Amino acid sequence: MRELTVDLGERSYPIYIGQGILNNIAGLFEKHQLSRKSPMLVITDDEVAPLHLERVMALLREGGFAATACIVPAGEPTKSLAQLEGIVTAALEAGLDRSSAIVALGGGVVGDLAGFAAASFMRGIRFVQIPTTILAHDSSVGGKVAVNHPMAKNIIGAFHQPELVLFDIDTLLTLPSRQVKAGLSEVIKHGLIWDEAFTQWCDDNAEKLLALDPEALSYALYIGCKVKSIVVSQDERENDLRAILNLGHTIGHALEAVAGYGELLHGEAIAIGMVGAAKLAQQFGYDENIHTVTKNLFLKYGLPVSIPAHLDTGSIMNAMMHDKKFKEGTMVYIIPTEIGKVEIRKDVTVAQVRQIVELLKGES
Amino acid sequence: MRELTVDLGERSYPIYIGQGILNNIAGLFEKHQLSRKSPMLVITDDEVAPLHLERVMALLREGGFAATACIVPAGEPTKSLAQLEGIVTAALEAGLDRSSAIVALGGGVVGDLAGFAAASFMRGIRFVQIPTTILAHDSSVGGKVAVNHPMAKNIIGAFHQPELVLFDIDTLLTLPSRQVKAGLSEVIKHGLIWDEAFTQWCDDNAEKLLALDPEALSYALYIGCKVKSIVVSQDERENDLRAILNLGHTIGHALEAVAGYGELLHGEAIAIGMVGAAKLAQQFGYDENIHTVTKNLFLKYGLPVSIPAHLDTGSIMNAMMHDKKFKEGTMVYIIPTEIGKVEIRKDVTVAQVRQIVELLKGES
Ligand SMILES: NC(=O)c1ccc[n+]([C@@H]2O[C@H](COP(=O)([O-])OP(=O)(O)OC[C@H]3O[C@@H](n4cnc5c(N)ncnc54)[C@H](O)[C@@H]3O)[C@@H](O)[C@H]2O)c1
Ligand SMILES: NC(=O)c1ccc[n+]([C@@H]2O[C@H](COP(=O)([O-])OP(=O)(O)OC[C@H]3O[C@@H](n4cnc5c(N)ncnc54)[C@H](O)[C@@H]3O)[C@@H](O)[C@H]2O)c1
Ligand SMILES: [Zn+2]
Ligand SMILES: [Zn+2]
């Protein structure tokens, strides 16, 4: 088992990563002072429920925790105020009190929704993450929780740190292969923004990771969480440094929105976005090699590197205008300066981004 | 103009109280670094709008602030997730960004709803309170913001401190007399829990306050805010001391819920609750005088001191069981030990409270 602390002063918390660690859930809950007296609510979605819920509930019950389950529909539309209201209903019916905890068992959708429920129920109760997707290594660090509004993603939310994160590699074995790849896209991002050696390691270990080799996977998730946690510890509220985590996300989010959530997975969309950022780097005079390495890496992982031709450039640009990263009209853009390093540029023009979007349509 | 600082470290903020201070809104907004570049959203309700909105919008416009108004229906049901969604729509349409502010112009309903919108929009933007009810002196201190769930009041919310509070006594002149009395109930509460001399002053100045005499009103609101701010500064997150602010609220909230929101105003319900707490004090051996003084004070202000006979005791008790103040099954109750002092008791039984509820039905 690997252990990592996300260092946020009073709000610091540990991430446990390893094979079979769910078996010790009761011990870890006890260690982190989760209450056996107050009821607990386990949120999961209807795809994860048949695979992993029963086991988690049984382990909690055996461990003396009074847990009730609440199952939401799988998929991005579940991150809504309507589902939040449903969770609060379940929480009230289960009798949750101020010492209770909400446990998220699932991917980033469940984590973000359950996390916002924990942040706002009674103005904040305790929260535990049990991520079951690779992508959720990302959402399990940093405390960003949110639901969507019909007009904008993640626009209603909070910063709410969990008490602990329990990442059992075994739960990932049921993950569809497309989700595996999309999740690894965000792992690779953590290499690209911070750690050249890890990027190289990702290049060398693609086969192992794609085959969910436990040791490789556990290491990659550890480094992914580690990089994110270093960044977040230095800038919990996204005032400056934290923005580097958005590498590939400006274009990525716009693509997700325009394609209609579902056609492109988040990890796929940001892979395209990272290739775009590398292209932009070229235009700012940085090494061409950045673009080649980035693109080949994503190709190796079976991830898309070009924008589907039928997506309209105008619509993509429009979607970007609603992006939260436009602070007081200025466009903030994350650009790689070498492999493992990025910079936050504030001088990128809309015309430049439009050109990149056009170029990304021809990429292959 | 009176000024008061709510002392919360990094999150400290000033409350300005006085006649005509809205005229200087642009100056105060500038002093507190509200952005002229980013759009601002002013939330108000449809009863306050025709009385005060135009003036506020004009003053902001003249002062160079780009404000858009958003009008919600007046009344408690507006504190809902549905209205929150509507505000977020308005915020997105007005183009709010991370440097924007949401301004609440209205009573506690608008303050709580707009405050939760500010707390959760983009995971938290700036917030300004312009209270237009007496009761809102209470909600303007402490940063508690929330919406209701059909099953429970204030159950979905956050702690989000404003940048400043601008309390213009002139806006109170349009307040219906029943709202004046109900608001003064919460002012009196601040005397009862903390300040014997102020309680005496309230007894001596009832006529002036009920007539909205500017100097008396301004002083009373100042002391009310002051007491609350001292308590909140010592316990921002309601771990212990802050609970004393709930004097009268355990029964009060239950009465509001059972009567159906609207029949009893919040201030009226807690007046009855405070008389109940004084009765309970008697049973714990404290001076009988507490009950007499409390009851006569509320009678003087034209506030109710007994539970309407048609409200069912069983339903009232049931409503209390959903109350957030039941921590891990223990009943926490605030009881006066003398005028101007209270204690937090954790040993009050349901049977004792039921008896008080019965007694309160006979009170007259
Ligand atoms: N809070 C943050 O910091 C942060 C960071 C990145 C992404 N996110 C959010 O995360 C979400 C995406 O997360 P995701 O990719 O995990 O999506 P997801 O939660 O929708 O999971 C993807 C799919 O896999 C299924 N699934 C989950 N675990 C499974 C398992 N073990 N076996 C089989 N199927 C399983 C789910 O039911 C779902 O259909 C987005 O909403 C994004 O905004 C948040
Ligand atoms: N956040 C907190 O700490 C806190 C504390 C106490 C109460 N509250 C909340 O505050 C709410 C009650 O506040 P309230 O009593 O101000 O209610 P309110 O906001 O509903 O206002 C009462 C009525 O007066 C009208 N009104 C407001 N200002 C007016 C004016 N100047 N002239 C004429 N009419 C005016 C409103 O339209 C409304 O119909 C409750 O929801 C309660 O939960 C919150
Ligand atoms: Zn991402
Ligand atoms: Zn109150």
Automatic annotation (TrEMBL), chains A, B:
It catalyses: 7-phospho-2-dehydro-3-deoxy-D-arabino-heptonate = 3-dehydroquinate + phosphate. This is 3-dehydroquinate synthase. The gene is aroB. The keyword Ribonucleoprotein does not apply. Zn(2+) binds at E186, H249, H266. NAD(+) binds at G108, V109, V110, G111, D112, T132, T133, K144, K153, T171, L172, L173, T174. Binds 1 divalent metal cation per subunit. Can use either Co(2+) or Zn(2+). It is found in: Cytoplasm. Its cofactor is NAD(+); Co(2+); Zn(2+). Keywords: Amino-acid biosynthesis, Aromatic amino acid biosynthesis, Cobalt, Cytoplasm, Lyase, Metal-binding, NAD, Nucleotide-binding, Zinc. Gene3D superfamilies: 3.40.50.1970, Dehydroquinate synthase-like - alpha domain. The keyword tRNA-binding does not apply. SUPFAM superfamilies: Dehydroquinate synthase-like. InterPro entries: Dehydroquinate_synthase (IPR050071), DHQ_synth_AroB (IPR016037), DHQ_synth_fam (IPR030963), DHQS/DOIS_N (IPR030960), DHQS_C (IPR056179). Catalyzes the conversion of 3-deoxy-D-arabino-heptulosonate 7-phosphate (DAHP) to dehydroquinate (DHQ). One of its GO terms (molecular function) is nucleotide binding. One of its GO terms (biological process) is amino acid biosynthetic process.
